[in-house]
Amino acid sequence: MIHGPCGSHYNYSSCHNSDGKCTRQYPRDFVSETITGSDGYPLYRRRSPAEGGFTAVVKGHQVDNRWVVPYCPLLTKAFNACINVEYCHSVRSIKYVCKYINKGTDAAMFGIRQEGSVDEIQDFLAGRVISSTEGSWHIFSFPIHERFPAIVIFLRIQQWMWLRVPKTQRLQRSSIFVDRTSLLLYTDVPSYYVWTKKNT
């Protein structure tokens, strides 16, 4: 997969900024071996023609390994499409993935606020983006998060907490002969009981 070619000495391309440079940083620098950059993204090996790198003519322009977009040949062949694949092991990549999957339409908000009054809850709600998937999940009241096991914290000399003990626990404590069949699932019954055929 070849990017462009683009740049100030080629025809106008959609990836140019106002300075006439490529916003996707092409052509990349030649690198003799793959290394990890300071931002956590890899700098892939891009051999120069002197080191055995390939050159080709694309759209009437000669290009080399500096113009190659990272891709996976297996995915490209399987889906018959251009699929850009890059390895990221930075914490920022998780933020990018979550924002990319859940992002909605672009929006801009502004407001007038008195100096010194900061409403953190409103700031959070205003900056939050809810996608159609997350919206339908909320509408149908599916669980968004869960805590297991729930832990009760009692702070000394602070609020009192009154806990109700479930009826099944009270019965288990107060009696040795408790009917535990109501607590069993259908699939667990054969583990505790045996069917005996009686002669009648």
Write up what this structure looks like:
By secondary structure, this protein is mostly helical. It has a domain at 1-101. It contains 6 helices and 4 strands. The protein has helices at 73-79, 91-102, 120-127, 132-139, 167-174, 189-192, and strands spanning 35-36, 42-43, 56-58, 61-63. The longest helix has 12 residues, at 91-102. The model has no long low-confidence stretch (mean pLDDT 73).
Strand order of the largest sheet: 1-2
H/E element order: EEEEHHHHHH
Structural class: mainly alpha
Backbone shape? extended
Largest sheet: 2 strands, antiparallel
Number of strands: 4
* Contiguous uncertain segments of 5+ residues: none
* Beta-strand percentage range: 5-15%
Number of helices: 6
Short description:
The protein is mostly helical and 200 residues long. The protein is built from six helices and four strands. It has a domain at 1-101.
